Amino acid sequence: EPARRLAPAGDDRPSASVSIQLATSGAERGAPIRITGSVEAAGEPCLFARVDVSLRDSAGVETWLGAFPTDENGKLEDKVTVPFDIDVGDYKVVARTPGTGRCGASR
C-alpha cells in the first residue's frame, strides 16, 4: 500500500505516493533482489524522483539499501542487495521520496 504524508507547512506541492514491489518474498544476505515501482502525486507521475529504499526490523530500526531514480514516466526498476551483516529475520520494505520540483515528500 502506498505511503502518504502531509507536506510541511508552506509546501503546496501535493504529497507523493510511493509504490514498490519486490520480485521475491524472501531473500538471502548478499543476494540481489529486483525492485519495481512508481511515484506519483495528485494522480500525476513524479519524474526523476529519488526513491530511498530500506528494510525495517520489528524494533523499527532501518537498514538503508540504496537510492534509486524514477524515469521520465515516474517508474523505477533496479536491483537492491541485502547486506551481508544484517540479522536473519523478517523485515518490512520501506520506500520514500524527498520529492521533486512538482511532487512533495512522502514517507
Textual characterization of the structure:
- With 107 residues, the protein is mainly β.
- Helix content is 0%, strand content 42%.
- It contains no helices and 7 strands.
- It has strands at 17-22, 32-41, 44-45, 50-56, 62-69, 75-81, 92-96.
- The strands form 2 sheets. Strands 1, 2, 3 and 6 form a 4-stranded antiparallel β-sheet that branches. It has a 3-stranded antiparallel β-sheet with strand order 5-4-7, with no helix packed on it.
- Strand 4 and strand 5 (62-69) form a beta hairpin.
- It is elongated.
- The N and C termini lie close together (12 Å).
- Mean pLDDT is 88; it is low at 1-5.
Characteristics of this structure?
0% helix, single chain, 4-stranded antiparallel sheet, 3-stranded antiparallel sheet, 107 residues, mainly beta
Quick summary of this structure?
By secondary structure, this protein is an all-beta fold. The protein is built from no helices and seven strands. Strands 1, 2, 3 and 6 form a four-stranded antiparallel sheet that branches. It has a three-stranded antiparallel sheet with strand order 5-4-7, with no helix packed on it.
- Give the overall shape, derived from the CA principal axes: elongated
Q: Total number of β-strand segments?
A: 7
How far apart the termini lie comes to 12 Å
Beta-strand percentage range: 35-45%
